[in-house]
Write a structure and sequence with these properties.
By secondary structure, the protein is α+β, with helices and mostly antiparallel strands. It is about 35% helix and about 30% strand. It has seven helices and eight strands; from the N terminus they run H-E-H-E-E-H-H-E-E-H-E-E-H-H-E. A hairpin with a 4-residue loop joins strand 6 (about 170-180) and strand 7 (about 185-190). Helix 2 (about 40-55) packs antiparallel against helix 4 (about 100-110) and helix 5 (about 150-165) runs antiparallel to helix 7 (about 210-220). The chain is globular.
């Protein structure tokens, strides 16, 4: 005997697989991490500084940093903005045909790179990129969340982030949710005036019951997290 499933049950089942609010704008951000040979870090940075204008002629660079603390050193991290996937395809084709870019930077510098990692991320719907008030240092905190998407942990995560922002413990630059790469990962990019101001703000937030309560709620959905202290290069738009 076959029993027809009521429509309202089907709606509930389907909605349970939803990942929460989605970004309908096609704009996305490509996170690139290059692991460099230890003796070649300075050479690579000098070459990219001389030739970065050839690359930014095709798409927008959000920021370019060297990694000071957090995991492997001799590492650079950069974020690129694209209107959509068709835009990225056009950019890649144009760069492949750009003789100047290929000969002056790409071909000479590929041997300096040990490994590359790329991720595609969207800004979360409740956030936009905010430019810091002055030069400083950056912290990228990456959260590996439990499967289920923002429908499961999004509200609690937002409250945890906003608890730091609203109480002025840190300056939020952007919150990104990975689309390609390790899934269920959220990156939060913070700005600090200095590493010491970051340490002071962190100590204060740990003693604030409002922050502690919000973070504790979000931590129920957390698998792991890691962070990196980032130093902006001289040619990075985000200083």
């Amino acid at each position: 005997m076959i029993t027809e499933v009521p429509t309202w049950i089907m709606i509930l089942v389907c909605s349970s697989f939803a990942t929460g609010p989605r970004q309908y704008d096609g704009t996305f951000y490509e996170f690139r991490t290059y692991y460099l040979k230890p003796s070649k870090m300075s050479e690579f940075l000098e070459d990219i500084k001389k030739n970065i204008h050839l690359r930014t002629a095709h798409s927008e660079l959000i920021g370019f940093w060297s990694v000071e603390f957090g995991g492997r050193v001799n590492k650079v991290f950069h974020i690129w903005k694209y209107d959509n996937f068709a835009h990225r395809t056009e950019v890649r084709k144009a760069l492949a045909k750009n003789k100047e870019w290929q000969e002056q930077f790409l071909i000479p510098n590929l041997p300096l790179i040990d490994k590359q990692e790329w991720e595609i991320s969207y800004l979360v719907p409740w956030c936009k990129i905010e430019k810091p008030p002055k030069e400083g240092v950056y912290e990228l905190v990456s959260f590996q969340m439990k499967p289920g998407g923002p429908a499961l942990w999004g509200d609690a995560f937002q409250r945890a982030v906003n608890s730091h922002v609203n109480l002025n413990y840190a300056k939020l630059v952007g919150v990104f949710h990975t689309e390609y790469g390790v899934l269920n990962r959220v990156h939060v990019l913070w700005w600090h005036e200095s590493p010491d101001s970051r340490a002071a703000g962190r100590h204060q937030s740990h003693e604030d019951p409002r922050v502690v309560a919000a973070v504790r709620e979000s931590a129920n959905h957390l698998v792991s997290q890691q962070n990196m202290l980032l130093i902006p290069t001289s040619f990075s738009p985000l200083k």
